Amino acid sequence: MTPLLSVRDLRTWFDEEGRTVKAVDGVGFDVQRGETLGIVGESGSGKSVMSLSIMRLIPSPPGRIVSGQIIFDGHELLALDHDSMRRIRGRRVAMIFQDPMTSLNPFMRVAAQIEEVTRLHLRHSKADARAHAIAMLERVGIPDARRRADDYPHQFSGGMRQRVMIAIALACGPDLLIADEPTTALDVTIQAQILELIRASRAATGSAVILITHDLGIVAGMTDRVVVMYAGTVFETASTPELFARPGNPYTQGLLHSVPNPAAEPGAPLYQIPGSPPDVAHLPPGCPFAPRCSRAADVCRQQFPPFVELAPGHHSLCHFAHDVYDGRSA
Amino acid sequence: MRTETRPTAAADEPIQGTSLWSDAWKRVRRNRAAVASLAVVAAMVAASLIGPPIIEVSTGYTYDLIPTDRALVRSFAPFRGPGGSWSALHPMGTDIAGRDLLARVLLGGRISLMVGLISTLVSLVLGTAYGATAGYLGGRADEVLMRIVDVLYAIPYMMIVIVLLAFFGSRSPLAQLVLLFVALGSVSWLTMARIVRGQVISLKNQEFVLAARANGVRPVAVIARHLVPNALGPVIVYATLTIPSVMLLEAFLSFLGLGVQAPLASWGSLAADGVQTIAVFPWQLLCPGITMAVTLLALNFLGDGLRDAFDPRGRRSP
Hints:
The complex is a heterodimer. By secondary structure, chain A is α/β, with parallel strands linked by helices. In chain A, 33% of the residues lie in helices and 24% in strands. Chain A has twelve helices and twelve strands. In chain A, the strands form two sheets. In chain A, strands 6-7-8-3-9-10-12-11 form an eight-stranded mixed β-sheet, sandwiched between helices. Chain A has a four-stranded antiparallel β-sheet with strand order 2-1-4-5. In chain A, helix 3 packs across helix 4. The mean pLDDT of chain A is 86. Chain B is mostly helical. Helices cover 69% and strands 0% of the residues of chain B. The chains are: A alpha/beta, B mainly alpha.
């Protein structure tokens, strides 16, 4: 079956003050229909730039998509004209942003913000759009939706606003939902509700989801497959159970180690990957993770690592991928 | 408080959506100073519209009627007739030519308010559209559009106006008036364009704008529905400041003899006339001057109230 979305060798660079920041540099992955793909990585690993590239919303200048293919349902998105791309945004690919406090227009009533999208894409009449907006608000769990439809965003709490964002994103029944850290700005209890809502919506509509996060717990609970990003490239991709059980990349291992273990001795130090994420404007010539990697050998510092297939659907960007996968120490 | 006792029939009816405007109106009504100012402005507009015909019917005076009786061609103080006797004929007195000052002040109100309103409307429409487009497009388009504004700024606006009026000025006072509107309108939108552009630039990087674009909203709709309403606060405040400033500019031009010409009158030209006789007939300056001051003050309070009303996030007076 052809994937719903297929990203190949995507490179999005930013020209800043004479230097080039390669925020996304050679990313590739597939999203199948109806599946949830998790994209994990530290801050600055290029997750958000990657998702904005898919939507073709990279501010240009300074940003530009240098090369690559983004094939969505048979369409090469990078070749579409502005109008065709606009008809895909919100209609077939929708996006939820990180901060619900700032991603709703403070001057529009919440229902109006849903109506705007459906009137645009589904050609709803005013009355239809209104009824649909209220139905969507009910679906995302806004209590007393009929009355609250005419509230302004500032009258809603953070979690409720994120529900409204989800209602907007799902209003046109998109095939793909890109959720860029949808719960990072929320309380833990609200996080669980929002994730449950995304899960339920996916189950109800069969839309595929790209869930961008840095929380491995969310990845474990929500996703079918995972893409691990580091320094603008894909370091590892595997099915979620496989990735957690048998990672094939030292960076993934480091990430998994970094998750606090509730069963650990109180006072035991928390593990952290030494060093900090690299400046993507000044990457070392070899593996970008080499300076922080405990296994790094000379070859890592000199040559960019190969993207090795470890098992069907399981790839890792590492000179020693097989050793890591098979559990052999350096 | 509404509770579950609402009838179910009502719940099935579509609820009428209310707009930003009706909501803002509700908040304006809660602001006493704004309501009072609105009443003053409305009264002034009404008086200048229906006042002159009423005066004409009741006293026979119009703004340009100079009495044929030579004894009446002189300045009477308010409520004073010939010989210093009490008279309700001229509540604001008369000017040196014996014309009824109230009729002239009301006609002046018509012209002054119209000059202020039309120029501000031009600056609102042109300036907002221009500035928002420049700010939203950014990059080279913004560069070019704003350099044009800079060039227009660099030419002293007074010179533009004077050249326009001197070049195309005709004998007819009415044609002169139209030219005045064009001239003032063409210079008053520059600052508005800059203000709106600045607002839009700071707004367009906010997430809700990105979210709107990610939902496929058209650029024109992004500007009109998402950017401009959020920039409305400063725009309204600046617009209310434009009205008095344009009215003052008009007064200055009228003073120079380039603006409104007799027998037409504006508050500016009436005040200019009054200044010449201030030592002898002070009411000829005070009547138009106070009328103008009260109107401008009311416009300022109204603008203040509107600014509060258009910001749903708060700054609500208790």
